[in-house]
Design a protein that fits this description.
Strand content: 25-35%
CATH topology of the largest domain: Dihydrodipicolinate Reductase, domain 2
Number of helices: 12
Shape: elongated
Order of helices and strands: EHEHHEHEHEHEHEHHHEEEEEEHHE
Largest sheet: 8 strands, mixed
CATH superfamily of the largest domain: Dihydrodipicolinate Reductase, domain 2
Helix content: 25-40%
Strand order of the largest sheet: 8-9-10-7-11-12-13-14
Number of strands: 14
CATH class of the largest domain: Alpha Beta
Number of domains: 2
């Protein structure tokens, strides 16, 4: 049984701690808490009464580990972004496994420092990108990476269903500030989509992005982003996200050499070139005498998460 500490018991940390308290995570038990405030203290009172210690900071927790006062196997980090690196590195230095809520850091150097500390320690290091576990994205990756329909040609992803009212940004002193949060929609909401994009289609080699700070909200960080992407094989794409569009949508289009896949509303729809063209698209393009053929007008539902 892995003895686990949750560092940073706020909105997300309280969810992780509650899962452990309710024994919903096989092989893990709640063994310590830090930065615990109301109303989350009331939520976790059963664990506190059962003897789970509460520390005011990560430093005090690690001091207890280093002195032998408390025995731990791993930590779950759910603190403000800038602190992820420091806490993770200290955890690795103490021989602890680390599960860190996204993002790994505000700067790329922070992420690399965490990876390097994990490698030195030989311990397990993982980031919380839970959308990889959704069946629809697992199936989409299987199709794209499987190669049945050829290489990626174009990707368009519009994710504007991360809508947030003004109150969201004023609910916490560190939200939506460069000094404490480190960024806006790209660092708080869309990291999930950015992770899925490279997981499914591979890492782009060139990116040009336009980020608008405080376009829809009274904040100093970005809440509206449009990016242009290029892959090594010549594929291109766009990535658009915001927290100020209503109604929003989440629509991912992946154009492969021999098919078009659309992921939207919990469904994968796919249209294959072969049944209509009778040959590879490249060959059809080179030989067809039909100037205005409209292909793939109907896409069949391949996967439905609701079923």
């Amino acid at each position: 049984m892995l003895k686990s500490a949750v560092i940073g018991v706020g909105n997300m940390g309280s969810k992780y701690a509650s899962l452990l308290q309710e024994k919903k995570i096989h092989g893990m038990e709640l063994s310590a808490l830090t930065r615990l405030r109301s109303p989350y203290r009331e939520m976790l009172q059963p664990s506190i009464e059962a003897g789970v210690p509460v520390f005011e900071s990560a430093d005090l927790l690690f001091e207890a580990v280093e002195s032998g006062e408390i025995d731990l196997n791993c930590v779950i980090i759910a603190t403000p972004h800038y602190s992820h690196e420091e806490i993770a590195v200290r955890a690795f230095d103490n021989g602890l496994n680390v599960l860190c809520d996204k993002p790994s850091g505000v700067y790329s150097r922070q992420a690399r420092n965490m990876e390097e500390a994990a490698e030195r320690s030989g311990k397990v290091f993982s980031m919380v990108f839970n959308q990889r576990t959704l069946p629809i994205y697992k199936k989409l990756r299987e199709i794209v990476q499987g190669g049945e329909y050829g290489a990626v040609k174009r990707v368009n992803w519009a994710i504007t269903d991360w809508y947030r009212p003004e109150k969201y940004y004023t609910s916490n002193s560190w939200h939506s500030t460069w000094a404490k949060d480190g960024g806006g929609v790209l660092l708080n909401q869309a990291p999930h989509n950015l992770d899925l994009l490279q997981w499914i289609c591979g890492m782009p080699v060139r990116v040009q992005a336009f980020c608008h700070d405080g376009r829809f909200h009274d904040i100093e960080v970005e809440d509206d982003v449009t990016a242009y992407l290029e892959w090594e094989n010549g594929a291109t794409g766009t990535f658009t996200t915001s927290t100020g569009d209503a109604p929003g949508l989440n629509r991912l289009e992946i154009y492969l050499e021999e098919a078009l896949i659309i992921c939207e509303d919990g469904k994968l729809r796919i249209g294959s070139v072969l049944p209509e063209m009778g040959m590879k698209e490249r060959d059809y393009r080179a030989s067809s005498e039909d100037y205005f053929s409209m292909s793939l007008q109907v896409l069949g539902v391949l996967c439905d998460e609701q079923e």
